[in-house]
Amino acid sequence: MREVSTRSRAPRILIAGVLVVGGLAMMFPFVWTVVTSLTPGANLGSPIRLWPENPSLGAYEILFTERPFARVVMNSLMLAAITTIVQLFTSATAAYAFSRLPFRGRGIVFAVYLATMMIPLQVLIVPLFAQLRTFGLLNTYLGALLPTFATAFGIFLLRQAINQVPRELDEAATLDGAGHFRIFATIILPNIKPALATLTIFAFMGSWNSFLWPLIVLRDPNLQTLPIALSGLQGQYTTAWDVVMAGSVISVLPMLAIYLFAQKYIIQGVASSGIK
Questions:
Q1: How far, rounded to the nearest angstrom, does the alpha carbon of residue 164 sit from its chain's CA centroid?
Q2: Spatial separation of the C-alpha atoms in residues 103 and 97, rounded to whole Å
Q3: Are 33 and 241 in contact (CB under 8 A)?
Q4: pLDDT tens string 233-276
Q5: What's the pLDDT score for residue 268?
Q6: What is the number of domains present in the chain?
Q7: Angle between helices 2-37 and 241-272 (to 10 degrees)
Q8: Among the record's GO biological process terms, what is one (predicted)?
Q9: How far does Cα 221 stand from its chain's mean position?
């Protein structure tokens, strides 16, 4: 019995060991970034350390005193929050229409809309730039936000989630006199929370890490976003890597916070994905 028990535990121990090694490998870059940001005068040629030598918050002080980093962070937070909220609204309402409202050519329209996912942003930059210049929206927050208000991926994700909600719930609500708006608000949205949480993370992360479009549209230094400000921390000949790493740590913290907030809904979605 002991031999059988040992054999049955061996695969679990092996899997646990692989997961631990993989987790440590994934955590190491972040730990090294934090350690470098706390090490005064650190550079990429220094020996790799897991504990800072003479730890100091001087790099963070430089970011917020010698550079307008607080405004940069607020710019990115504002753009990411607005983008996420608007994408959740547009994606959820459009997904409900594609899933629950029958109309002629619905499948074709949805397929054409999904096909736009294959068009890279680089192809659209010139026409978008020309349109915004015509409307006088260059170098404005609205100009940076408009192209991000709708996303084909978000509509696809939420449509698939809505399709999993039993239509019998809609029919029962209709018999009670509920209309589409009430069904959408009281039945559909509560049942697709995991998908909404997933879209929240993707939308926030996409806006927070966006570099090319804000770089082209937002020329005013007071309107800069975090990725653009981080690229400006690297000098032409010398680079204060502790300051760069401090900026990198700050850029990771909001993403970590929003993931910790939404992870329970994502886990619920994974756990219930195979339940009929």
A1: 24
A2: 9
A3: no
A4: 776 445 778 888 888 898 888 888 887 877 776 666 555 544 44
A5: 64
A6: 2
A7: 140
A8: transmembrane transport
A9: 24
**Same domain, residue pair 125 and 201:** yes
User: Cα(131)–Cα(34) distance, rounded to whole angstroms?
Assistant: 42
Termini Cα distance of the chain: 38
C-alpha 255/C-alpha 204 separation (Å) is: 8
For all residues of the chain together, what is the average pLDDT?
Answer: 84
Amino acid at 121: L
Query: What letter would DSSP give residue 55?
Result: -
Q: Is the pLDDT of residue 120 over 60?
A: yes
Distances (CA, A) of 244 to 37, 42, 45, 214, 239: 7, 10, 15, 20, 8
pLDDT-wise least confident of 16-20, 50-54, 79-83, 225-229: 50-54
Residues 114 and 29 in one domain: no
Rounded-to-10 torsion of CA 242, 246, 248, 250: 180
Residue 84 near residue 207, CB atoms below 8 Å? yes
Domain that holds residue 209: 59-272
160 and 219 co-located in one domain? yes
